[in-house]
Design brief:
Elements lengths: L22 E3 L8 H16 L7 E4 L1 H10 L6 H16 L2 E2 L5 E2 L1 E7 L9 E5 L5 H9 L2 H18 L5 H15 L9 H19 L7 H15 L3 H10 L7 E7 L10 E8 L6 E9 L3 H6 L5 E2 L3 H4 L1 H18 L3 E8 L2 E9 L4 H13 L5 H6 L3 H7 L3 E2 L7 E4 L1 E4 L2 E7 L2 H9 L4 E5 L7 H6 L2 E4 L7 H9 L2 E4 L5 E3 L4 E3 L5 E3 L3 E5 L4 E4 L4 E2 L2 H6 L12 H16 L3 E5 L3 H9 L5 E5 L9 H9 L3 H25 L4 E5 L12 H13 L5 H13 L11 H6 L3 H18 L5 E6 L5 H22 L6 E6 L2 H5 L1 H4 L5 E4 L1 H9 L3 H7 L1 H6 L13 H18 L4 E4 L7 H9 L4 E4 L4 H20 L1
Parallel strand pairs: 3-4, 16-17, 17-18, 18-19, 26-27, 26-33, 27-28, 28-29, 29-30, 30-31, 31-32, 32-33
Antiparallel strand pairs: 1-2, 2-7, 5-6, 5-7, 8-9, 8-11, 9-10, 11-12, 13-25, 14-24, 15-19, 16-23, 20-21, 21-22, 23-24
Helix pairs in contact: 4-5, 5-7, 6-7, 13-20, 15-36, 20-36, 21-23, 22-23, 23-27, 24-25, 27-28, 35-36
Length: about 900
Amino acid sequence: MSENKDPHVAAQAGSSVEGVKFVYDFTEGNKDLKDLLGGKGANLAEMTNLGLPVPPGFTITTEACKVYLDSGEEPAALRDEVSAHLDALEQRMGKKLGQADNPLLVSVRSGAKFSMPGMMDTVLNIGLSDKSVQGLAKQAGDERFAWDSYRRLIQMFGKTVLGVDGDLFEEALEKAKEAKKVTVDTELEAADLKKLVTRFKKIVKTEAGRDFPQDPREQMDLAIKAVFDSWNGDRAKLYRRQERIPHDLGTAVNVCSMVFGNLGPDSGTGVAFTRDPASGHQGVYGDYLQNAQGEDVVAGIRNTVPLAELEQIDKQSYDQLMQIMETLENHYKDLCDIEFTIERGRLWMLQTRVGKRTAGAAFRIATQLVDQGLIDEAEALQRVNGAQLAQLMFPRFDENAKVEQVGRGIAASPGAAVGKAVFDSYTAVKWSRSGEKVILIRRETNPDDLDGMIAAEGILTSRGGKTSHAAVVARGMGKTCVCGAEELEVDTKRRRMTVPGGHVVEEGDLISIDGSSGKVYLGEVPVVPSPVVEYFEGRMHAGAQDADELVEAVHRIMAFADRKRRLRVRANADNAEDALRARRFGAQGIGLCRTEHMFLGDRRELVERLILADTEAEREESLKELLPLQKQDFVELFSAMDGLPVTIRLLDPPLHEFLPDITELSVRVALAESRQEPHENELRLLQAVHRLHEQNPMLGLRGVRLGLVIPGLFTMQVRAIAEAAAERKNAKGDPRAEIMIPLVGTVQELEIVREEADRVIAEVQAASGTELKLAIGTMIELPRAALTAAQIAEAAEFFSFGTNDLTQTVWGFSRDDVEASFFTAYLEKGIFGVSPFETIDKDGVGSLVAAAAKAGRETRPDLKLGVCGEHGGDPESVHFFHEVGLDYVSCSPFRIPVARLEAGRAASQSQGSDHR
């Protein structure tokens, strides 16, 4: 472990370190200690401090977990600290852990800094044994309850701590219900549960090779180690990669005195939200399950009742819960997700956290809290993010389409998902990797289904509610989800689903699910644009009487972001149509116009003639024909972006990309020769393809090198830009052209091209009688350019970082090859947290960007700095570009709103840091 002055971090395995505290009572912590106590422990402490009814307990810190994971041993001081806190807990409760006549039972639960629902381990009812189960029965006056609690302990302990296949316990439970001819476990009687305990213990003995431990302290110690170990479990690591949670945080462990929701009809357990996590609307949202323990609700194995029904079941507890929910939301100033248990009419709070929510709910809640005066605009920006905004821009189902609805469940996580039905995670992953879109259908999901949930377009379950595992995880991932569609009969063994009316959906059949309405359809339902996209395109107006409330919330948040942000946002656009759309989306200019896209289509023949030219006269003739076409391109572009900057990159790719494929051309020539048909032009083309062929064209004759080797090529493009600007200016327009030279590696290349460009611009000015101010700059996309930025800035008025190519050249990757070949393995092995082409590599590529920006401005203080790779629209990368002082980012039109939002969030965060 690295050296740290904090005494909490100074521990070494196998030794006692003075001043290090590994265990905190719930009365000692607070919500700001998430790094040390984990989210669950910090919030249990906070609720205790607020005077809310929290069962007493203590938290083992994340630092103890880190020591254990680093060395394989617990800190030497940990056992004594746990013993001291356990003694204090026993004195407070007036019971001893696992004693025969009056047993104290505890739960051992994980609690990382960031919520990882269902990904790590929990064990309830620790302290029960063959002796103490009798004492619990006597203590509770309920023999059935005691044996039910014991069978739960053996089941959870066996699976979680001893590694026994959980299906073996489930199968035994199902057989017990079949023998009794009942359908739910609450209908099993004490005698049935005694037999089940015996069966469960035999399963443990057979599968684990040892007896179920009867010593309560051994149970607790083994459970604590199991929670530590679960931090590095496969599903936890997969979830962290998906959610970009650091792998070195470790988990805290919470040891909490048990309260029981399975003591009869006056007991129960539930999950509540202070607002609807799917829509953001205020009201009473959550699930309640009578005569149950907490895991029963989130597991979705029994269908719950809506939380509102608790008012009829137990009004006193309901009223108290409503008061606590209001207290917590006002205290945390956010949507809170709450777990609670009622034990014989007494309410206990087991957990609270800032709740996961859908993208739409996030925007609505942020604006609601501003209106309530709980947060300000700057904080509202931190409650949403660009990934959520991107989700809101996805299409939705066409309400006017002819559909065949076959079911309806709970709208757990919005979106319009279409795919082939699959019934297990393995198939979902396998088919997805083959390019198929799939819908994962389960009775209920569990943490082992995570990889399939990630692979699927959407998730459909026949059990569970808005607080089930499927719903919570899907919302966190932004994945479409419909839960609790009870009329659908899911048969995972036969890989089929029977819908009302008897129709059977087999694996591979297309279905559509609507996570906004909960509706399930047969076949593929067509989609239409999102109202948020319609708003950005000007087809839906915020503030109108009939405005969509989601659109109104997005409008307000975007207004907050635009007021806060320093970074300007431009578009990557190559034609007037894209430019106009980008402008509607809020673009403040064009940061990258790729002129090579203008050379395709009908102009390919002209380019071929240029490449095949044998003489200077032939080459000049081809360029002369291309000039007016290029000029018209730029006239249209300047018109669409009038008054805003337009950065035009001169031709970048190798010339052979404009010629036919070598294999296809070779076949054409061979066929023509065999038929004795004329093929002179094809033969010349083939010779040119061979002449221009390069082993690695990305590092060959392209960009500025092409402009220096092919006389007149860049000159023609500069003239077209200058003449288009002059024409537009003479028509009372306001063209703001910027000429960008690609792939510069040394200042001498830029100086030569610039000298010729200045000459051409001067000629156009003289001929048109119009003064032109055309900035000339370069793309920084080679490591050498970044390292010599101070020199290059002498000849450049602006830098635009081409981070796609810069990433390729820094890493030595050919993007087209490596993403398909080994990136998946690198992501799975944790070498990458995310693809460096998706989010900028701050340590490598990012350090070059930062150094080049600094060096360039030292040479030329007014140097304009931007970025035009795909990173310009990536949320995390936008924050980095703000931090290093760039002036603008440029991205595809569809990502402009995301970049605008993240630029505002970045500015708001940095201002908040400055204030702190």
